[in-house]
Amino acid sequence: MLGHALLGLQKGIMIVCSIVVAVGISIAAVLRYVFRTDLYGSEEIIVIFAYWLYFAGGAFGAYERSHITADVVSVYVKNPRLKAALACFSSLCTFGLSTLFAWWGWHMFAWGLEKGGATPVWRIPLVIPQSAIFFGLVLMSVYFAGNVLEDGKVLAAAWRKDPEHLRGAGE
DSSP letter string over 13-60? Predict the structure, then answer.
């Protein structure tokens, strides 16, 4: 139940942020190139929505397992056990790195809370875009942890020679 609500929230954030970024950039371009004027400080607002779009989208890609991978080895490996082991190892590395990045994101977020900081024009607290980084990386780590568990089950099934669980190996 909570997972569905969280995914719905992520989708809502991605939709709203996509619209705001596209409309904001379009308005700024029309004002700049057609009317020869500038919407001073618009970049400060657009970049906040871009950060949330980017990191909510990254987390959603992690959930769907549609994030970019360089998994060339699994194309050439035919042994289901080795394929499952490589997929599990890859998921474990991805989880480890995303957890490290989330930890760094926490430190940046905490530093932003402690030090303050704001954008030059609108004085928007910098912790707002920094929070997108932290929360996005935490969600990615949670989803990657789920991938490790799924791939671990596939690996265990491969060693038991249980063909029912081998369908997702290396995907």
Answer: HHHHHHHHHHHHHHHHHHHHHTS----TTHHHHHHHHHHHHHHHHHHH
> Helix, strand or coil for residue 79?
coil
At residue 148, what is the residue type?
V
CA distance 140 to 99: 8
Residues 86-115 have pLDDT tens digits of 999 999 999 999 999 999 999 999 999 999
Q: Considering the entire predicted model, what is its pTM? A: 0.85
pLDDT digits (tens, 9 = 90+) for 126-152: 999 999 999 999 999 999 999 999 999
Query: What's the DSSP call for residue 165?
Result: G
Whole-number Å distance between alpha carbons of 98 and 139 = 9
